[in-house]
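Lab notebook, design round three. We kept the backbone fixed and only want residue identities now. Task for the bench partner: fill in a sequence for the structure below.
Input structure tokens:
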């Protein structure tokens, strides 16, 4: 049961976090109050202490903000990558028009990798096509793409169908009448933007990072004004929260960093003040040493050693004295014999 009691998070928080902080704050408050009542007599000392406290608080705050910013830019990838797509085709020699499928090679990056591994991405192809009669009569056509690593290694491929949005003749006439001033002035054009989602959940492989993309329109009759490739990060979990609620996540992250940095400062202060308090040592099972007892033991041990070392010298002195006495007795006896 004692083990389960120590595993209780509320008990651990109360014993190891709240109690040390409360005792530290109360000790500091009473200590500074006592010193204030006894020794603080000048405004200069008060300003000095307030400056030291403000410096420490500002340092803790800026360290917490810096840690959150570093974590954000390390953990969060770039949201969108946009690359222009320049289609190429083979023109016919005799007849007018296109004699091959329009295709393009898109270089995503010149470095080793551009996408973050284990992060889902949505890859779209945006086609800007005119509302010409040829495109209307064309109907559906296929759009294919290949994602390749450095050296031309195929990583993934996909093909999707696309077509213009249908508009009836009445809708087209009314739209033309409404937008007539903009169409005449050139602010608007009779065109549509087709979004073709080629990959809905693409994840880059760390061993084979994608560096190039190949796009092909499998129709010789489609007319395209411009084209671009969009790669958007699809966030889930913590990245989703950090991206769509940046202020809330920043407040929570900085507050957490502030708590842990403050705890580290407090523990460092305790360490500089000759270790942790006695109640934390008792909770952790650390032996509490008494400085007076250790000093007494050292003193008595030193005296004992000195006494043990002094015995041989005392024996030598007594032997010398006895030898001198025997010599004196011999000398006193020798003249009487003569």
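Proposed sequence:
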């Amino acid at each position: 049961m004692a083990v389960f009691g120590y595993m209780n998070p509320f008990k651990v928080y109360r014993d190891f976090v709240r109690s040390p902080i409360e005792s530290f704050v109360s000790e500091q408050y009473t200590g500074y109050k006592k010193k204030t009542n006894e020794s603080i007599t000048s405004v200069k000392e008060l300003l000095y202490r307030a400056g030291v406290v403000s410096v420490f608080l500002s340092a803790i705050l800026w360290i917490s903000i810096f840690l959150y910013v570093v974590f954000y830019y390390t953990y969060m990838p770039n949201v969108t990558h946009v690359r222009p797509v320049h289609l190429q085709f083979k023109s016919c020699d005799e007849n007018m028009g296109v004699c091959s499928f329009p295709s393009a090679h898109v270089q995503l990056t010149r470095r080793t990798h551009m996408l973050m591994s284990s992060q889902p991405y949505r890859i779209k192809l945006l086609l800007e096509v005119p509302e010409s009669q040829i495109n209307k009569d064309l109907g559906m056509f296929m759009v294919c793409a290949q994602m390749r690593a450095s050296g031309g290694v195929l990583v993934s491929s996909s093909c999707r169908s696309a077509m213009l949005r249908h508009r009836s003749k009445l809708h087209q006439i009314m739209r033309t009448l409404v937008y007539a001033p903009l169409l005449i002035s050139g602010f608007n054009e009779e065109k549509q933007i087709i979004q073709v989602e080629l990959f809905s959940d693409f994840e880059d492989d760390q061993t084979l990072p994608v560096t190039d993309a190949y796009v092909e329109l499998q129709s010789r009759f489609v007319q395209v004004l411009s084209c671009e490739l969009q790669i958007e990060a699809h966030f889930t979990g913590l990245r989703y929260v950090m991206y769509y609620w940046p202020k809330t996540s920043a407040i929570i992250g900085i507050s957490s960093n502030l708590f842990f940095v403050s705890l580290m400062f407090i523990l460092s202060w305790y360490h500089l003040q000759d270790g942790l308090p006695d109640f934390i040592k008792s909770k952790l099972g650390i032996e509490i040493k008494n400085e007076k007892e250790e000093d007494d033991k050292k003193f008595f041990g030193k005296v004992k050693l000195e006494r043990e070392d002094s015995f041989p010298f005392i024996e030598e002195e007594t032997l010398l004295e006895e030898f001198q006495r025997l010599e004196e007795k011999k000398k006193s006896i020798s003249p009487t014999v003569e």
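Keep this in mind before ordering anything: The longest helix spans residues 291-337.
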